[in-house]
Design a protein that fits this description.
Radius of gyration: 16 Å
Helix content: 40-55%
Number of strands: 0
Oligomer: single chain
Order of helices and strands: HHHHHH
Distance between the termini: 22 Å
Structural class: mainly alpha
Shape: globular
Low-confidence stretches: none
Number of helices: 6
């Protein structure tokens, strides 16, 4: 896996976030590559420092991956039915997280994706 071998902190293979480059703001996904790299090194607290939403995103991505793999091997798993409030809640949390991490308020500065 390239992400495990090449540190996004060093740049190189990885492009800069378009939102960060154009607007100078952190999007909800900013810091995700550095966070995933940290997870490949078993540095969980460092990963969450890069992007706190990894706490939810990684388990969900693992479940989606498992569903796709089970379908590929011929043993499809029926995906759970999400309640109607799930998608608006996810969008709302991402929006609030984006606003709060870009406020620049002293006590909330740890939410930004800065290295």
């Amino acid at each position: 896996m390239v992400l495990a071998a090449s540190d996004p902190e060093d740049g190189g293979l990885y492009p800069r976030c378009p939102t960060q480059a154009v607007l100078g703001l952190d999007c909800p996904a900013c810091g995700t590559l550095r966070g995933l790299h940290s997870l490949t090194r078993a540095r969980v607290s460092e990963a969450l420092d890069h992007n706190l939403l990894l706490l939810v995103a990684v388990p969900l991505a693992a479940l989606v991956w498992l569903a796709l793999v089970s379908q590929a091997v011929g043993r499809p798993v029926r995906p759970p039915t999400l309640p109607r409030w799930a998608l608006p809640t996810v969008v709302g949390v991402a929006l609030v997280f984006t606003v709060v991490r870009n406020l620049g308020v002293g006590g909330l500065a740890w939410l930004d994706s800065a290295a």
